[in-house]
Amino acid sequence: MAFEFPQKVLFKHCDPAGIVFFPRYFEMINDCVEAFFDQGLGVPFHDLHRVSAVPTAQIKTQFPAPSRHGDHLLFQLDITKIGRSSADYSMTARCGNETRLITSATLVHVDANGRPTAWPDQIRNKLQTFRGDTS
Ligand SMILES: CC(C)(COP(=O)(O)OP(=O)(O)OC[C@H]1O[C@@H](n2cnc3c(N)ncnc32)[C@H](O)[C@@H]1OP(=O)(O)O)[C@@H](O)C(=O)NCCC(=O)NCCSC(=O)c1cc(O)c2ccccc2c1O
């Protein structure tokens, strides 16, 4: 099951050439991850960050086609791997049938001291429900 996150391209996302500037895509990616924790996992960041955090250890992104002001993007997130303290996800953003962004990344669950710590069972079990087809 993929988690879905709609995002309309706004004026603030675009550069003078009229296309989405890549740092704004990374903000959209993080907005999708934040919504995933809140709505998908039932662990909103304002609760999670009282005791832990989930920084990004690695991320790889491709932009196969540009997005423009007014486009309606649909982000889809799948969990592809769950480790002791880490989780890999893949994410795409599409406008209609056209793919605009493909990304894969690793989040690591860390304690209040920033050290990797095992996922709590409640979060691990919810992550499992968003496992995609890969590995
Ligand atoms: C991320 C680290 C805390 C990892 O520490 P360390 O390297 O000591 O970890 P281990 O070797 O013990 O491995 C633990 C665990 O992580 C996996 N892992 C580690 N590095 C990688 C990697 N490069 N690629 C893939 N996987 C990796 C490893 O396989 C282990 O997995 P297990 O499942 O087996 O346990 C440390 O490296 C660190 O602190 N890095 C800096 C992170 C950072 O600054 N990122 C960029 C800015 S922060 C950020 O972007 C961000 C912050 C947030 O608070 C967020 C909150 C919510 C969502 C997103 C956030 C976010 O993106």
Automatic annotation (TrEMBL):
<dbReference type="InterPro" id="IPR029069">
    <property type="entry name" value="HotDog_dom_sf"/>
</dbReference>
<dbReference type="GO" id="GO:0061522">
    <property type="term" value="F:1,4-dihydroxy-2-naphthoyl-CoA thioesterase activity"/>
</dbReference>
<keyword id="KW-0378">Hydrolase</keyword>
<protein>
    <submittedName>
        <fullName>1,4-dihydroxy-2-naphthoyl-CoA hydrolase</fullName>
        <ecNumber>3.1.2.28</ecNumber>
    </submittedName>
</protein>
<dbReference type="GO" id="GO:0047617">
    <property type="term" value="F:fatty acyl-CoA hydrolase activity"/>
</dbReference>
<dbReference type="InterPro" id="IPR050563">
    <property type="entry name" value="4-hydroxybenzoyl-CoA_TE"/>
</dbReference>
<dbReference type="Pfam" id="PF13279">
    <property type="entry name" value="4HBT_2"/>
</dbReference>
<comment type="similarity">
    <text>Belongs to the 4-hydroxybenzoyl-CoA thioesterase family.</text>
</comment>
